[in-house]
Write a structure and sequence with these properties.
The protein is an alpha/beta fold. Helices cover 21% and strands 30% of the residues. The longest helix is centred in the C-terminal third of the chain and has 12 residues.
């Protein structure tokens, strides 16, 4: 398995391309822009993308979806809690951002505990509301893609539509910090981390786990 990080769009939201070195199939997580870079990587590495998976539906993580779908027959998946946000440019804030204004209808939804299979890849869905109602994280092997739920040394903002601070902290404490220490955290913005580093060093999470 390979994972490539591409800071996408003017907001540098981390887009992750997960691919199987055996089958060549892959998924694209949170294409917020920079579709030229994403497409170039897919072509240069002979990857056949099957899904676009969204950690949540804010504009900086979804603005590249329509353009990317013009080039590849991709199915878009999102948690059902973010369906309204994904479809409404005012709620997903793309109408207020630099970049395309987008309202998107997904091809399928997923829920907490679902497993998505792409070739020999298995992607686990963890529902982690708090940054948005339908925010999720994805686990693939020893990697945890956290979107805007958890960052290196910080957490996602909770002042936007569907956000709630206590819910976010509860999601992180009960669903993420309970995972293995060496699980690699790949956030929606900024550098990577590990569960161990965040459990012991994230100032927002001190005393939040047992």
């Amino acid at each position: 398995m390979k994972i490539e990080r591409i800071p996408a769009g003017v907001y540098a939201a981390n887009c992750y391309i997960i691919s199987s070195e055996t089958t060549g199939k892959g998924v694209v997580v949170d294409p917020g822009g920079s579709v030229d870079k994403i497409s170039r990587y897919l072509e240069e590495n002979s990857i056949e993308p099957v899904y676009i998976l969204l950690t949540h539906a804010h504009g900086d993580h979804i603005m590249g979806v329509p353009e990317l779908k013009q080039y590849y027959p991709l199915k878009v998946g999102v948690h059902k809690g973010d369906l309204e946000m994904l479809a409404n440019a005012s709620i997903n804030l793309s109408s207020q951002m630099t970049g395309p204004t987008v309202g998107i209808e997904p091809d399928f939804t997923f829920e907490d505990g679902d497993f998505l299979t792409v070739g020999d890849l298995k992607v686990e869905v963890i529902h982690t509301p708090g940054h948005s109602k339908g925010g999720v994280c994805f686990v693939v092997e020893n990697f945890l893609i956290t979107g805007d739920t958890l960052f290196a040394g910080s957490i996602g903002r909770t002042d936007l539509t569907g956000g709630d601070y206590d819910t976010l902290i509860d999601s992180i404490a009960k669903k993420l910090l309970t995972r293995s220490d060496d699980l690699v955290v790949l956030p929606g913005h900024g550098p990577a981390s590990t569960i161990s580093k965040e459990r012991f060093g994230n100032p927002f999470l001190r005393g939040r786990w047992t």
